[in-house]
C-alpha cells in the first residue's frame, strides 16, 4: 500500500535521505524513527507530494505520487507535524469542507461521532483560531480519518495531546491498520513506536541504520527480548546509534593514515 523504492532527496550538496526503500502492506503499521534531522519528515513530504524525490519512486495505494498525483492523493489521509487549519472556519465547518472535497455520504453523522469521540462536541461551532494546540491536533486527525483512507501518513502525531487523547490516537492507528489499511508514522516517542508498530525503520542522517520487527532489531543489535529484563526499543535505538558512531569514528581514524600512506607513496 505504501512503497518507497530507492528514494533519495538532496538539497544542494546535502543529502537528506539516501536510497531509502521499504513497503508497508495492507494491515501494516510502520514506524519511521530517527534523531533530529534524520530525514523522517523529508520522506513523509515526498510521500504526500510536497517534496519531489531527487531519485527513486514513492507510491501510495499503487499510484506513483508524482506521476499520478490525483488518484494517489485521493487514497491517503495526511496528518502533518504542525496542524494547518483555516482559523476563520469553525471545527464543524472544517469537517464539512473536507467531507465536501471527498464527496462523503452521511457526513453529518460521522462528524458528530468524531467530535464526540475527541470530546470536541462543545467546541464544534467555535472558530478553530480559538482552539488550543491539542484541540487543533485532534481536529487535524479527524480531517485525515473522516474519509476512512486506505493509507494514513502521520508525522509526529502525539505532540500537544493529553494522555487520554494520546491513548485514543494510539488505539485509532492500530484499529485503522487492523481494518485492512496501511499506516506509516514518524515519531520521537519510542514507547509509542514499540506499543503499536509492526515494523520499524531507524534512520540517521538520511541512511537506514536498522529495519524490521522489534525482534529483528534486537537480533541485529545483540539485545534481548521479552520479560521484565527484555531490552526496550530505547536500548535498541541507542545501540544502533552507538554502532553507527563507532563505525564513523573508525573511518575518521583510518582516513588520515590512508592519506599519509598516499603522500609517502
Ligand atoms: N527545505 C529544505 N532545504 C534544505 N535542507 C532541508 C530542507 N528540509 C530538510 N532539510 C534538511 O534535511 C535533513 C532532514 O530533515 P528532516 O526534516 O527530514 O528531518 P527529521 O528526521 O524529520 O527531523 P526532526 O526529528 O528534527 O523533525 C536535515 O539535515 C534538514 O536540515
From TrEMBL:
Return the SUPFAM superfamilies for the record: P-loop containing nucleoside triphosphate hydrolases (SSF52540)
The GO terms this record gives for MF are: ATP binding; ATP hydrolysis activity
Q: Which InterPro entries match?
A: AAA+_ATPase, ABC_transporter-like_ATP-bd, ABC_transporter-like_CS, ABC_Transporter_VariousFunc, P-loop_NTPase
Family matches, as Pfam families: ABC_tran (PF00005)
CDD domains, A to Z: ABC_DR_subfamily_A
**Keywords carried by this UniProt record:** ATP-binding, Nucleotide-binding, Transport
List, alphabetically, the PROSITE patterns matched. ABC_TRANSPORTER_1 (PS00211), ABC_TRANSPORTER_2 (PS50893)
Query: What domain of life does the native source organism fall in?
Result: Bacteria
Which intervals hold domain ABC transporter? 2-230
| Keyword Transport (UniProt) | yes
Protein name (record): ABC transporter
Amino acid at each position: 500500500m505504501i512503497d518507497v523504492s530507492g528514494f533519495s532527496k538532496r538539497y544542494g550538496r546535502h543529502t537528506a535521505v539516501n536510497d531509502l526503500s521499504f513497503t508497508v502492506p495492507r494491515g501494516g503499521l510502520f514506524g519511521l524513527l530517527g534523531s533530529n534531522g534524520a530525514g523522517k519528515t523529508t520522506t513523509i513530504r515526498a510521500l504526500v507530494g510536497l517534496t519531489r524525490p531527487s531519485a527513486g519512486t514513492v507510491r501510495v495505494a499503487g499510484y506513483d505520487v508524482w506521476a499520478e498525483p490525483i488518484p494517489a492523493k485521493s487514497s491517503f489521509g495526511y496528518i502533518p507535524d504542525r496542524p494547518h487549519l483555516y482559523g476563520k472556519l469553525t471545527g464543524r465547518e472544517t469537517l464539512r469542507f473536507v467531507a465536501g472535497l471527498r464527496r462523503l455520504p452521511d457526513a453529518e453523522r460521522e462528524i458528530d461521532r468524531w467530535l464526540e469521540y475527541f470530546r470536541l462536541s462543545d467546541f464544534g461551532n467555535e472558530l478553530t483560531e480559538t482552539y488550543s494546540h491539542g484541540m487543533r491536533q485532534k481536529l487535524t486527525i479527524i480531517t485525515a480519518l473522516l474519509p476512512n483512507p486506505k493509507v494514513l501518513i502521520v508525522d509526529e502525531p502525539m505532540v500537544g495531546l493529553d494522555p487520554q487523547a494520546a491513548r485514543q490516537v494510539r488505539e485509532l492507528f492500530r484499529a485503522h491498520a487492523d481494518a485492512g489499511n496501511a499506516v506509516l508514522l514518524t515519531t520521537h516517542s519510542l514507547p509509542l513506536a514499540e506499543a503499536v508498530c509492526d515494523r520499524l525503520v531507524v534512520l540517521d542522517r538520511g541512511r537506514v541504520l536498522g529495519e524490521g520487527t522489534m525482534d529483528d532489531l534486537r537480533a541485529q543489535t545483540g539485545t534481548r527480548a521479552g520479560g521484565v529484563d527484555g531490552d526496550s526499543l530505547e536500548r535498541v535505538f541507542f545501540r544502533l546509534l552507538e554502532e553507527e558512531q563507532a563505525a564513523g569514528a573508525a573511518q575518521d581514524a583510518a582516513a588520515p593514515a590512508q592519506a599519509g600512506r598516499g603522500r609517502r607513496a
